[in-house]
Amino acid sequence: MPSLTFSQAKTLFAPYITSQGSTDPVVGSAINFVNERLISSGQWRGNRFAYNFTVSQDSAGNYYFDTVPGIESVMRVIALDTTYMTGEIADVMSDWYPWNSNGIGYMSPTYVGDTEIIRLGNSPVYPLPSGDGSGHYTSDTQRYRVIGKIPETRTMMCLVRRGYVPLVNDTDVVVPSNRNAYRYGCQAYNYENINELERAQVYWDLAYKALNDESIAFEEGSSEQVEIQMKAFAPGIIQNLI
After folding, report:
1. What is the pLDDT of residues 78-90, one digit of tens each?
2. What's the whole-model pTM score?
3. pLDDT at 237
4. Which three-class secondary structure state does DSSP give residue 120?
5. 76-112: buried (b, 16+ CB within 10 Å) or exposed (e) per residue?
6. Rounded distance between C-alpha atoms, residue 5 and residue 33, angstroms
7. Mean pLDDT over all residues of the chain?
8. Residue 147: which of 211, 215, 91 has the closest Cα?
């Protein structure tokens, strides 16, 4: 499917949002609202991509890497030795992993064994409102600890899940770029704004169906099948409210 810029999206979907045209600020707001909801609600085409991270070391000797804005989470990792061009597939563990009663607890920075990637949570860490009155809270980037090799000099070649970043510039690319999904999403947005939640849900379901259909077609033929977000589309509960 052709890429879709923010400028093109405003022109295409303005008629479903307002009668004031694409320059009305509500158009950009609506598209951003829909974009965030679509990105966070499923694993659609365009929602994952490859990204390489360089490993750093903190003052306690722990190896880690931080994601960047636009990446929601790390899904798969290959620890890549660029000197010998070899790579070790590493398991990605949740932040719950060290606290699991059947798990391994805290691993020393000097532990040597199978490489594991442990999500530590948001970074920089602001779990509570800051005491300086600035009102800063937790960021959207994630920190991952790397254990298993000393010293850890490899590049972490990751398959990552896209995170929402507000569309600002006209040249920003809208992902996912399925035009039908945004058309239905903008209609759902309008119905939610007037508390017509049942009607809104009809259009959200149509938006998810458009994305599911595209994702199924995109994944067809690949040996590794990705779980599609089928729960978002349940024809049996849709009522004829259009």
Report:
1. 999 988 888 999 9
2. 0.81
3. 46
4. strand
5. ebbbbeeeeeeeeebebbeeebeeeeeeeeebeeeee
6. 16
7. 86
8. 91
